[in-house]
Amino acid sequence: MTPREEEVLASISTEEPWALIERFSEMHRWMPDDVNRGADEIIARLRRLGLPLTVHEPEIYLSVPLSASVEAGGIEMRAKPPSMSLPVPDGVTGELVYLSANVKNLRTYTKNAAEIFSGGAENLAQRLGGRILVTEGFGSPALTSIAEECGALGLIVINPGQNIHWGTCTTIWGTPGLDDFSRKPAIPVVAVNNPDGQTLIEQARAGANATIRSELLEGWFPQKIPVVHIDGTEEPDDFVLVHGHYDSWDVGVGDNATGDATMLELARVLHTHRGQLRRSVRIAWWPGHSTGCYAGSAWYADAFAMDIEAHCVASINCDSPGCRWATSYHKTTCMAEMKAHVRAVIEEVAGQSPDWIRPKRAGDHSFYNIGLSTYFSLTSTMPTALRDEKGYYEVSGCGGNITWHTEDDTLEIADRDVLLTDLRIYTLAVLRHAAEAILPMDWRATAAEFAEAVDRYQAATGTAFDLTPARDATRSLAEIINELYTAIEAGRLAPRAANSVLMRIGRVLIPINYAREPRFAQDPAYVCPPLPSLALATEFADLPADRIGFAKTELVRGQNRYLAALIEGGDIIRQALA
Questions:
Q1: HSE of 139, CA atoms in CB hemisphere, 13 A
Q2: Taking burial as the number of CB atoms within 10 A of a residue's CB, which of 96, 409, 419, 563 is the most buried?
Q3: Per residue in 171-181, pLDDT tens?
Q4: What is the pLDDT of residues 455-500, one digit of tens each?
Q5: Rg (CA), the chain
Q6: Backbone phi, then psi, for 65, in 5-degree steps?
Q7: What is the DSSP string of 67-80?
Q8: pLDDT, tens digit, for every residue of 216-269?
């Protein structure tokens, strides 16, 4: 760490962020008017600190859960409907059918039913048609989609513990377009806690009926998006985008008041030391995360697509830092090209070597289709041994605390010491990204990830399909990328020219690795495997003989898409080196 970096980190204080956390611990932020009041709290603090602020107020589509219940065997049970589920205030009644879920995949985003249901996925339509499915898990988009496609009347998910967790259940990402809206769930979905779920399992085994009732508030609502923009000194048009959501379930301290507070202090510190920033830093607080399926960040990706396309150098998400017991970095979200940069920061600040999670189709990562290098969603989390000792199941926020998405995510979930460590990590990572002459992405690591994925897919298909063209193209890409970094390290490319190439490569390689849909669209909210246009290769071994020809046709097209992207990426580099 340089003396100038140490000076910046020494100026970090928890006073301002902790004050916001305490205020948000008293404020519900999920009804639209309450969300805007939350924005006003952030805006007032930013203005008092004299930070350069713009406030957008788009109309976005929201689905706000109000109430739900399940009645079976003469017993009425408390429930919560996920956002975007079908409201049924008058109730839907049907026979219960129980399918056991693979507990290890409770938080899965996959649409592969065989991975979700531990008893297999055979004859699902016959088993679920006209019935209400009861299974373990959360009201995930993929599970809801499977239940609806199989003709289920409704879905009841049994959460793992005593608490019932809020969530969302649609594969739609952000405010839907006309085509997307057809994917809005057409069945009611509710979550119940584990004790009530066990009762429902017994009712299902006895062939009982159940009635689901739910109410949601849905429609278009104006929501505020505060954005701070701190100008860089040498390349002010280019910017690092740091972002996180300020709407929450209930008061949502660990998810995401701590993140909002982290971004507030980051904005204050970087503005104070703005003379050290080569390029700009833009910090945005999103609404519509919880009840709009990431509608705030998706709106921003749409509204500022050309600015982001031309000038954004990275997307850094801030969700659930600074939580109780979260002292480990073994689940750090990061794309391959950013791992060296992020590893150095966490090692220097926290004294740990992080373990990695491939960025999921979750959080507010609304920028994959544009092609932004991405790191962080969750940073710190509680050590696995401590989680096991406490008997906690896995959740997607709050540093691993199972108060995530419940009424119990209150002030005691925040930890001031952990917050300070995470503040230092975010500040150093963003500072280096904005201050270093050469952008810190290393596309050699991405090319290596591509090669590993192609080899794995070839092994999965065996002799059924030839991925040699993909292998050859990947090897060629790796070679030209090595030439690029040799030229950069030798000073044969000026920093601005080098950075332009590094950004343009990302616009090609990230969508081919993280998106199925065209650029500037939004992919559905379920898992995207590495190199999704080639991922069908993993299914060949399980396909019936009469489907192999269709699969080969799809994979030919997928390989063509992959080859075209790699050729384009190589051409960008060759032109720069010419």
A1: 28
A2: 409
A3: 999 999 999 99
A4: 999 999 999 999 999 999 999 999 999 999 999 999 999 999 999 9
A5: 24
A6: -65, 135
A7: EEEEEETTEEEEEB
A8: 999 999 999 999 999 999 999 999 999 999 999 999 999 999 999 999 999 999
pLDDT tens-place string over residues 133-177: 999 988 888 889 989 999 999 999 999 999 999 999 999 999 999
In angstroms, rounded to a whole number, what is the distance separating the alpha carbons of residues 183 and 256?
Answer: 28
Q: Name the pTM for this structure.
A: 0.96
Whole-angstrom Cα distance, residue 541 to residue 212? 40
Residue 300 to residues 265, 277, 534: CA-CA distances in angstroms? 22, 24, 30
Residue-wise burial string across 446-469, b where 16 or more C-beta atoms lie within 10 A, e elsewhere: bbebbbebbeebbebbeeebebee
CA of 42: how far to CAs of 47, 263, 265, in Å? 9, 10, 11
Q: How far apart are CA 551 and CA 548, in angstroms?
A: 5
Residues near 28 by Cβ (< 8 Å), separated by ≥ 6? 34, 250, 251
Angle at the Cα of 547 from the Cα atoms of 542 and 552, rounded to 5 degrees: 95
Interval 384-408: pLDDT, tens: 999 999 999 999 899 999 999 999 9
Span 335-369, pLDDT tens digits? 999 999 999 999 999 999 999 999 999 889 999 99
Distance set, CA 428 to CA 79, 124, 432, 443 (Å): 43, 50, 6, 21
**Do 128 and 149 form a contact (C-beta atoms < 8 A)?**
no
Sequence-distant (6+) residues with CB within 8 A of 546 are: none
How far is it, in rounded angstroms, from Cα 369 to Cα 512?
A: 9
- Name the β-bridge partners of 218: 63
Across-strand partners of 77? 70
